[in-house]
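Risk register update: the risk that structure generation would not scale has been downgraded. Supporting records follow, first protein first.
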Amino acid sequence: MSNNEGAFGVMYVKLKPHLLMVLVQLVLSFLYFLVEASLNKAMNPHVFVTYRHAVGGIVVLPFAYIRERKTWPKLTLTMFVELFFLSLFGIRLTLNMFFASLKYTSPSFVACMINTTSSLTFIIAVGLRLEVVDVKNTRGLAKVFGTVLSLIGALIMTLYEGHTIHSLQGAPLHVRGNLVHKNWIKGSILSVASCISWSLWYILQAIIVKKYPAQLSLTAWINCMGAAQSAAFTVLVQHKPTAWFITSTVELFCIFYAASKKH
C-alpha cells in the first residue's frame, strides 16, 4: 500500500461520520419535498403520520421479536406510561405539528428549522441540570455561541418570508402547485413547537433507553403507539373518511420512504 493510499484511508475514517451526517441531511431534505408534493395532492398530514408509523412498526416488529425476544425487559405500568409519553412527544406532537407546518411554509424552511432542535435540546438539558456548561472552557463557549447563532438564524427564517419560487413546468414533483402559503407565522409557530417537542423527546429517550435497552423493540413500541395516538387525533379533527384514501403513487411512495427513514 502506497503512502497516498494510506493517507486517503486515514482521512476517510476521520471524515466518515461527517459524510454520513451530510448524507442523512440530503435524505431528509428529499423527504420534506416529497411530503410537500403529497400535501399538494390533498393528503392529510395527520393521516400521513399515522400511516408512516404504522408501516414502520409493522416492519420493525418481526426483527425485534427475532433478535430481542429473550432480552425483553419486564413491561410494568410505569414503563408503559413512559413509553406512552415517549411516543406522544416523539410522534403525536412533534411530527403532526412538523408536517402540518409544511402547509404554511416550505420544505427549505422546515429543513432549516429542524437544525434548531440540537440547540433547544441543549437549553432544556441545561435548565434541567442534565448538562453542565463551563463558560471558561473553549468547548463550553463554542456550545453557547453555536446555540445563540442557531436561534438567531431560526428567528430570521421566521420573520423573513421572501419571494415565492415556483416549480419548473414539467418537473416530476411540484412542491407548491397552486397552493399558496398565506400564513407563514402560523407555520413558523407550529415548526418551532415541534422542535421543542422533539427536544423533549430526545431527553426522555435518553432516560428511558437505560431502562429499556432493547432498541429494536423500543422502536417498535414508539412506532405502534405513536400511530395509534395519531390515528385517534386524526379521527377527532378529520371527519371525512375519504381523507384516509391514498389517491396517488406519490403519496404511497412518500409513506414508505418516510417509514424507512424514521429510525
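Supporting record for the second protein:
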Amino acid sequence: MNKLGLMQPNFFKVTHSYPSSIISCIHNAPPHGAAEVSRITSLVNESTTSRVLKDVHLSTQLLDGFLDLAEDNTSKDLETCGVLGAFLKEGTYYVTTLIIPKQDSTSSTVSQKKKCQAVNEEEIFAIQNEQSLFPVGWIHTHPSQSCFMSSVDLHTQYSYQVMVPEAVAIVMAPTDTSRSYGYFRLSDPDGMKIVRECQETGFHTHSEPLNGASIYEDCSNIYLNPNLRLEVFDLRH
C-alpha cells in the first residue's frame, strides 16, 4: 500500500492496514471455523510478584508488519520504535492501532549504544485522542543486539506502565537466534519502585530487588488474536 503519512495537523490517515475478513477493529467471539486466539506462553517461569492484570490482545499481523516498516532502519543498524493503541472492552485491551512516530535513531559507537527517541509526541497524543485509544505499550527493534530490556528501555517502559499497568514493551531482535522477540514489563512493585526512584539518564545499571526478584519480567497476559484488524499510522513521511 502507498505510504500517505501525515496530511494535516490533527488529521491523520491510515498508512497501512491488515484487514480481517472476520471483524474490523471490534472483537467478538470468532464464528465457527475461524482462527482461534492463542495465548503467549512465557519462555521462563512466570513471575508471581506482580498484580493481576487485564488481558491484552494483539493482532497476529503486528510483529511482522512492524518489522517490515522497520526494515530500512534495521538494514542500517538503527532502532525503530512504535506506540501501541488499544480500546478496552469488557475488561480486555484490544490493540488495533500501531503509531510509528517521527523519531531520532542512532547506531552504536565506541561511546554510545543504540537508542531510538520519538519526537513530535503531540502527534501521537492527537491520534490517541481522536481514536479514543489507551497507550498500552510500545514496540521497538534491537537490530543487532539480543532480546532484552536496556536501562533506557526500562525507563521508557515505566512511563507507559505507570499510566496503564498492563502496558507491554515488545522487543524485536531479528539477529538473536535464541529469542527473536519478547513481551516484557517491569515487575510490580519491585521493578517499578527501582525505576521510579532512579534519577540517572542514558545507559546505566540498576540495582536488583532485595527479594531476589527480577527488575523486569515476561508478560503472562498477552494473546495473539487473528480476528483483529490492525491499522498503522506512519508519521515519519
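Confidence is low (pLDDT under 50) at residues 1-11, 20-33, 43-49. On this basis the risk owner (M.S.) recommends closing the item.
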